[in-house]
Amino acid sequence: MVRWRNLQLVILPDNGRCFCEAARTGAPKFANWDCLEGFSCPRRVLPAATRRFHRPTCLRDQRAEVPSFLETYKQAVEFPPATHDFETFLARAEPNTEVVLHGYLGPRADLSKKLSFVKLTDPTMKYSLQVVAFAKNDAFEKLKALNANSPVAVRGTVQKKKAKASDTADQPAEDMWELALEDINALNDFPKDIIMTPETVFAPEQRYLQLRSDAELREALRFRAQVRNVCKKELEENSQPPFVEIETPLLFKSTPEGAREFLVPTRRPGLAYALPQSPQQYKQILMASGLPRYFQFARCFRDEDLRADRQPEFTQLDLEMSFAKGEDVMRTIEGVIRRLWSTLMKDPAPEGPFRRLPYQEAMARYGSDKPDTRYGMEIIRLDHALPVDLVNKISGLQDPIVEAFKVESNENDPAETGQFIAQFLDSPAGAPFNNNPDGGPGVFVYNGKQPLCGLQPFGFEAAEQVEEILEPDHGDLIILQARPRAPFSGGSTPIGDLRRALHAFAVSTGFKPAPTGFDFMWVVDFPLFSPSSDSEPGQGGAAGIASTHHPFTAPKTAADVDMLLSDPTQAVADHYDLVVNGVELGGGSRRIHDAAVQEFILRDILKMPAERLADFSHLLDALRAGCPPHAGLALGFDRLVAVMLGKESVRDVIAFPKTGKGGDDAMVRAPSPMTAEALETYHLRLRE
Amino acid sequence: MVRWRNLQLVILPDNGRCFCEAARTGAPKFANWDCLEGFSCPRRVLPAATRRFHRPTCLRDQRAEVPSFLETYKQAVEFPPATHDFETFLARAEPNTEVVLHGYLGPRADLSKKLSFVKLTDPTMKYSLQVVAFAKNDAFEKLKALNANSPVAVRGTVQKKKAKASDTADQPAEDMWELALEDINALNDFPKDIIMTPETVFAPEQRYLQLRSDAELREALRFRAQVRNVCKKELEENSQPPFVEIETPLLFKSTPEGAREFLVPTRRPGLAYALPQSPQQYKQILMASGLPRYFQFARCFRDEDLRADRQPEFTQLDLEMSFAKGEDVMRTIEGVIRRLWSTLMKDPAPEGPFRRLPYQEAMARYGSDKPDTRYGMEIIRLDHALPVDLVNKISGLQDPIVEAFKVESNENDPAETGQFIAQFLDSPAGAPFNNNPDGGPGVFVYNGKQPLCGLQPFGFEAAEQVEEILEPDHGDLIILQARPRAPFSGGSTPIGDLRRALHAFAVSTGFKPAPTGFDFMWVVDFPLFSPSSDSEPGQGGAAGIASTHHPFTAPKTAADVDMLLSDPTQAVADHYDLVVNGVELGGGSRRIHDAAVQEFILRDILKMPAERLADFSHLLDALRAGCPPHAGLALGFDRLVAVMLGKESVRDVIAFPKTGKGGDDAMVRAPSPMTAEALETYHLRLRE
């Protein structure tokens, strides 16, 4: 038991050095100095000057004196409760009444030695009120000892502000009232050396300062909560039977579905849980369990490298419905989106069902399975029209597919267009396209003042065809790009990437206006299977193909079921991605609800080894017990909120995002080293 | 690329053996038989007879034939959408209209070769409707081929049921209407050999069957969603400023707060995240970030052994408020509880603020820090009144504290009372009390017909005092129990445990009636620090004491702040536990909001080594940046729902609970072995 009666505390003076520096220079001396060894300098966050360290030192036979920081704290322990929140106060303020308000101090203006003004901002930092302090009582001196941004409790008398010439009838209540200071309780101290303005950008380590100084960021979190509520309301109130929010486990099992899973070792040697990539299997089992409508804001995990729109942990609005097909899910989600837009956005979402764009068409016309279709620049296949020598010039490929798109110029000025495309190709955004091993882009500026309007390399005949197909105007840009002659697979083509990058560059340089509005669509008719690559963690099958999305996706029609036997790569999936403005908001599918078919796909099509197949036995057993047909979807919730707020990164709508490339939480410094003790508990050793 | 054109499928006959058995006995032969090696028998769940396995075998130059299970599935791919959900249908049924309804078949009654009746139960399994099938079309035969419980889509003509004598005006709509079968789509098959009645108890592996057969369990999940919504509504709508639902990370950092944490290794050698025991630190940082009211239904994790009321992952309603003291949080939670009870329960919660019971008083009067106070049996200290030789008889301890309680007998029959207590002490529930090394319970039956009413061992004088203190009636039981002379610490005393166990036994045997109603209270004034034991993972300090709850708990008053210097073990915490009927629903505290004080507690009182202290630097930095005072609480959400529904175990209110002692999910079989590949990815090896 520690006894404190014989201790006295000595406080290291706040002398602008953090403790480890003080130790090095040996400034102060303490009886138990040696205990400090091994202390790592935590100076990385705040400037050294603000750090204080307190050390007790044994001085025998002295009574304890209460150190000043405990005295300060005792003052803050007891503070008067607020009589009003600001919103209520401003709505019902009455002159000459006494109120207590809580909040943060603003910067103080000392008008004279006897008169100061200071703003008091409420705890939500939405409202503020002027406080007038006269040198008539202690409170005046107390106020003067406090730094701006410090939390306080203020007691004061309500008084009407003197009217100014500029006042209008509808001026905000904040401008009508002020408080004559009677007393003030300092609740904590804001360090003088932290500079905090609405413009300050703090390091990720100081997320709390970013949140506190950045009203837009705090508002994004409030907005996120509203988005959540609207989604919930629509699912719970506008569906019959209603969707029910059901939680599913996060300590799940490793099953090979796609991305790499985080493992959670247990104290039983060699056994681990896995954190789920999605609640997919549990929600399907709910459908087999007589719970026909499920939803959840589910935390999901993927052990993948960080990108602007991807976090190792993320939230999805996850749902599933039984006795349902893909169409039912799409209609449900359209209802959610429509309600979100009509409730929370400036303009409602477009009327009627969202457009359906088949995967093959999306890839052909936009070179992307999540196209932004608002800005034209549609891709058109041209190889049939091109002379062989031109094709040979733009690609070293044997008999390639050649596609083209046109960028319309606003100014009809070929020189300006030429300058724009040269600038793009010289920029970091353009570089990867120049270095395409299948050949860089072929660039032509349509120019009525040149022979064949600048299309000489096409030859007369092809130039005429190209004009007929693309209908270019004076000053427009024509881009050609070759790719190998093969069916579409994956999320984009080189010309699709080029279209996107070139458009982004055109917007950022002012060559094109930024597109506006929200263009919702469902991209549908994905192939059920795609060629698998060895480099990524896959579904563990040996067939050379993998499910394009996940192995529980159902074939779309009876004809696609037949295709499973004749040529599975030709089978179309009942999968649908919700895409808006080039962003994939989420995706879903009808699932295979028949155990025999599911087993056939895992075993005979994907050629999973028997031991991996056994990992799915719980799902097969659940399907086998008379599971009804079902379909569902997951919306990337972080991304949905980011899109609604027009934010580039999901980090701007997450309170504490991971920021480092390795998935670091820079603020708490996670991940951190496993201790020898922890490794032993979990029967593990580090590999050398 | 796999080519399937040359494959034919052979289906293993459903011959009552699972595949591995078939393999052992060698019944069927396939071309690629050898691939089956290493297949582990998944027979644990369904009876072997229901398992079917399908194997392709290469037979050259044969065209594919579509195997029957794919043909069956093709039928289920296309099915008509329901024209109505049952609720809408029953409200608006019109005779002679044609409808399509989805649902599950009930058992079929064949009245003749040409007439059958079958119930159709809707997807929620709340409603059902009679279907009449005549042998006039295909549908009749299709129906007869289907097992009960199979999911179907039924097309039929609505007709009014013939009125019966027993019919009343307010009979349910289900009994007024029936459907004449026109067509039926089989959507899946329910195996004949699964016996499913409302009474069947399925193994944890078959949770989906339990959920599907057990209406009460499904209803518990719906109720849980309602509880969630009511809590949310109260916090969002009835607080000014409103609480905002904010998600905090689950990939957190290992910090020494109490329970053992699960680790999540990363691909960076030796580094791991930890899953949070609670969002404690993040929510405190939110308070420093200008977000004054936070709540979240937070998933939390503790690597501890399973108990009926404890899961390795659990959900808590977590909240925090700034510019607030403990009282503000208690008032908020009383509002939540009151709204829950008035909205969802039979009787509303009692009016007015909940009773406050100080820890010392709870321990003295009930021997528990979460007492059920509804049934009396209050504990009274007796050692001052007892003769030394009696004390020596009931305990080998030197100068023990002796406490007593009385169990009133309803029958006033000493013989019955004697039998009851003997039965208890002989039962498994009573055994641990007999084996108490500090002495077993002293048992006395008050009996007016015996000398000194059965209190002879007390001697005349003490017996008289005991009668005065306990006021026993004829047939009442008096229990004495000794314990070492030491201050209260921990959650209960031996006599408190005895009181609880004896009462539970009395209720289970009918000796006492079960107490009714809900008795809410706040247990307050816990000691800030308690002696720490080496056996449990603690806060990593070297002081021999640990924070009773967690090291962020604030001392209650200025006097308790002073106590930090003079005798920290005497300091009282501003901590509060919400207790109802002997169950702790949750707890919370005011937090230390001052960095210097927090650092002082961690470093100088708990004597954490510097490197552990550095783990908290993010929190200290956030407090240092002018953090306002704040307080919060976490309600065990699983337990709250269980208490509201009168369930013994939280497992009855969780869709997929862990059931094994080691935290197993028996259904999906998690945890599971880590593969060599996974270990390598995370730079780990198993310890031999």
From TrEMBL, chains A, B:
Alphabetical UniProt keywords: Aminoacyl-tRNA synthetase, ATP-binding, Ligase, Nucleotide-binding, Protein biosynthesis
One example GO MF annotation: ATP binding
Stated family: Belongs to the class-II aminoacyl-tRNA synthetase family. Type 1 subfamily.
Signal peptide (UniProt feature, chain positions): none
Domain annotation Aminoacyl-transfer RNA synthetases class-II family profile: ranges: 221-671
Matches recorded under InterPro entries: Aa-tRNA-synt_II, aa-tRNA-synth_II, aa-tRNA-synth_II/BPL/LPL, Asp-tRNA-ligase_1, Asp/Asn-tRNA-synth_IIb, GAD-like_sf, NA-bd_OB-fold
Name of the protein in its database record: Aminoacyl-transfer RNA synthetases class-II family profile domain-containing protein
One cellular-component annotation, GO: mitochondrion
CDD domains according to UniProt: ScAspRS_mt_like_N
Classification via HAMAP family: Asp_tRNA_synth_type1
Biological processes per GO annotation: aspartyl-tRNA aminoacylation
Originating organism: Penicillium chermesinum
Keyword Kinase: no
Pfam families: tRNA-synt_2 (PF00152)
Keyword Aminoacyl-tRNA synthetase assigned: yes
PANTHER family (alphabetical): ASPARTATE--TRNA LIGASE, MITOCHONDRIAL (PTHR22594:SF5), ASPARTYL/LYSYL-TRNA SYNTHETASE (PTHR22594)
